[in-house]
Amino acid sequence: MSGRQVVVTGATGFVGTAVLRHLADRYPQVVPRVLTRTPAPAAAGAVHRVGADLADPASLRGVCEGAVVLLSLASYVGPDADRCEAVNSAGTAALMAEARRAGVRRIVHLSTCAVYGPGPHRGAQAGELTPAPVSPASAGRLSGEAPVLDAGGLVLRAGLVLGRGDRWVVPALADAFRRVPAQWDGGAGLASFVDVDDLARLLAAFALGNGAAAGTTGVLHAHHPEPVRNRDLMHALAGHGVLPERPTADWPWSRCLEALAATPGWVSERQFTLLARDHWYRADAAWRLAGIAPGPGPLHRLGRAASWYRERGAVRPE
């Protein structure tokens, strides 16, 4: 795996920048071919930049020429339904068509467990739940999975991603806690989380590894195998000075929703439910097939991103 044989989309995003850091550290002989819509900040390690836009299929012509691996990490997660369709669905389909035309042998595509829609979800394996996305972003990402699978690729559905660069998960928790200043229904909700650097390790292992990793296709969950309890996450964030200490009051779910609705903020009831109630999925298979250890878990990694989170607070994502 040398030269410019690995194509990476979404390399300037939250997960993509972590992947480039990992490739530079673990695979210094690889010079990724990075697709960017606009001039991008300097990346870790050597990269070869190519101007391309998933929303413009014509710009993708030739981007996979000579490549043996495609790491498909780009997505649009905003509310614009037309852009969700153009990037997440049609754009991914166009990229997969180009990868097939160029003879790319290994495709790893990052998706999300949000495609499953409203919970509660408790310990399902990949393939045991029927996806039911409720947002345009999630619907587009689910649609984009089909051409990946048709091309013989691997789809990795990740849970909630934490770490430096996270503009959604912890800021959303901060906004919700400001509006619902109590323990949420006992804080018992379990959710699947992964540290962004651990997710980068997993993506790289499937993209560049040997053995079982090299031949894995289909759909897998991609987060830490152990779910995180809400009260443990909130306590850990308070310990790093990201959130105030959680009060001892324990509000039932109905009161939590009433308080959320009564206080202005940007987190919706659907997003609050995703963060506070059971949404966890089994992910042991991904780490076993990749041949790497999942690490100690996202709570143990929070310290590395604490300053990032303290600076951002509850700022609404752009």
Would you mind describing this structure in some detail?
- This protein is of the alpha/beta class and 318 residues long.
- It is 38% helix and 17% strand.
- It contains 11 helices and 15 strands.
- The two termini are 36 Å apart.
- The relative contact order is 0.15.
- The model has no long low-confidence stretch (mean pLDDT 93).
Low-confidence stretches: none
First and last CA, distance: 36 Å
If you average the pLDDT, what whole number results?
93
Strand order, biggest sheet? 3-2-1-4-5-7-12
Q: What pattern of helices and strands is seen along the backbone?
A: EHEEEHEEHEEHEEEHEEHEHHEHHH
Determine the number of helices (DSSP H or I, runs of at least 4 residues): 11
By secondary-structure content and strand pairing, the structural class works out as alpha/beta
**Helix coverage percent:** 25-40%
Number of strands: 15
Overall spatial form? globular
Provide the gyration radius in Å.
19 Å
Oligomer: single chain
Main pleated sheet:
7 strands, parallel
In terms of DSSP E residues, the strand content is 15-25%
